[in-house]
Amino acid sequence: MSAPNIETIVSLAKRRGFVFPASEIYGGLGSSWDYGSLGVELANNIKKSWWRWLVHERDDIEGLDSSIIQNRQVWKYSGHETTFSDPLVDCRACKGRFRLDKLQDVSCPKEQSANAGSGKECDLTEAREFNLMFRTTVGAVSAEDDESALAYLRPETAQGIFINFANVLNTSRRKLPFGIAQIGKAFRNEVTPGNFIFRTREFEQMEMEYFCRPEDAPHIHQEFIDAFQEWFYSLGISAENLKLYEQTKEELAHYAERTVDILYRFFPERDDEEKQFDELMGIANRKDFDLKAHSKKPEDREGKRINTDSNEDLSYFDEATKQRFYPYVIEPAVGVNRTLLAVLMDAYTEKTNDKNETRVIIKLKPELAPIKVAVLPLAKNKPEIVSMAKDLKRQLLPAMRTVYDDTGGIGKLYARQDEIGTPFCVTVDHESLEDNAVTVRNRDTWEQERINVSELKEHLQKRLN
Ligand code: ATP
């Protein structure tokens, strides 16, 4: 089982402290969200998993953390100033403003049962291009529209990688093929944000640019498409809720040779099976577009330099063939927030207890669970039990994130830990004081085992791994 719709996750996320609406006490701010104590742990665990899997476990990828605000020229030569826009339409009847290619994702403000643009009275304007980059000014300026101080919040992390290609190459002494990975915030002034954390104006990306010889690009591209599906499986996402989508010639970005999106079933409630899926990540073969675009040497057909502002050439010299060329780039780009949503939706299950009550269990993989173990005292008014429980918490903590909780009766505490995905609860009771053993309860099966304290850490560690 997985969550029947995103709404189920929205209410769980708010109730249990994963995600809250941002600026809520002032009425919110157009689809912005804040991550609470459990949400920030879950997001961190997703990022750690990605980083370990790509940067640490492979031998061919370097990490990077570049600035959010860069010189404006970066976005001029990357093409974002002129082409990073969405087609925008207004409705003369309902006064709504929509993204033309996503009309099916929003309903008409006047006629909730109809999609935007398909209501009885809808009257859409011609589409015009709306640039998605957030503008700001750098330094003390006299006027807000001072062009010389204009800068943007990055709409993707990728460009920070391309402009550092030579720095990383020279300091790491890498040879092709190799990659550079980065995790960080990105900002897009989306026309129609929505569907909880699926589409927001501020979000987080995990991007990797893998530089290779042009002739190797197609098979490396395919390898990453396969590898990333495996990574999502390793996070506990089931294969039936993932799907590949090959972008058509018309959909491809101007620089891309081939792009495959990995889709997740974010909208299981929709009748049309095809519309249940939407993008979780994209994996593109960007050819040599980016490195060339930021280099001072390349010329256009008329012999004019395409970049008159760069003072670096980002080509690569191949010692073996004594040739210089611009590497091709394979880019797997994942959204942290969409991954978090997919992970929560897929882990969502319901189970009926012996009193015929429905309980929610979030069956997160232990690697992702915000809390691995909760130590619970059966009687919080018995100092010996409390002290033994707190002691156990301290002993386990260095090896696994452990919390102590005595804020309710044992049934309530178990239910709460199930709902936030904690794989194991450890209960200290009166007998524990005599036999030095505790009860270990499994989140998914609700089975309980009596384990001696001397074996507890090893017992839990084995099961968590
Ligand atoms: P979409 O078509 O949904 O607008 P995109 O194709 O423009 O997405 P990319 O530029 O390929 O997205 O960005 C890579 C990843 O970053 C996406 O697959 C998604 O996971 C994430 N992402 C992009 N835009 C947003 C957003 N507004 N909110 C949350 N995540 C986003």
Account of the 3D structure:
There is one protein chain. The protein is globular. The longest helix has 20 residues, at 37-56. The strands form seven sheets. Strands 3-9-10-16-13-12-11 form a seven-stranded mixed β-sheet, with helices on both faces. Strands 20-19-21-22-23 form a five-stranded mixed β-sheet, sandwiched between helices. Strands 5-4-6 form a three-stranded antiparallel β-sheet. Helix 2 (37-56) packs across helix 9. It is of the alpha+beta class and 465 residues long. It is built from 13 helices and 23 strands. The mean pLDDT is 96. Adenosine-5'-triphosphate is lined by residues 156, 188, 190, 199-200, 203, 205, 279-282, 333-335, 337-338.
Q: Briefly, what is this?
A:
This protein has 13 helices and 23 strands. The model has no long low-confidence stretch (mean pLDDT 96). The strands form seven sheets. The chain has a seven-stranded mixed β-sheet with strand order 3-9-10-16-13-12-11, with helices on both faces. A five-stranded mixed β-sheet has the order 20-19-21-22-23, sandwiched between helices. A three-stranded antiparallel β-sheet has the order 5-4-6.
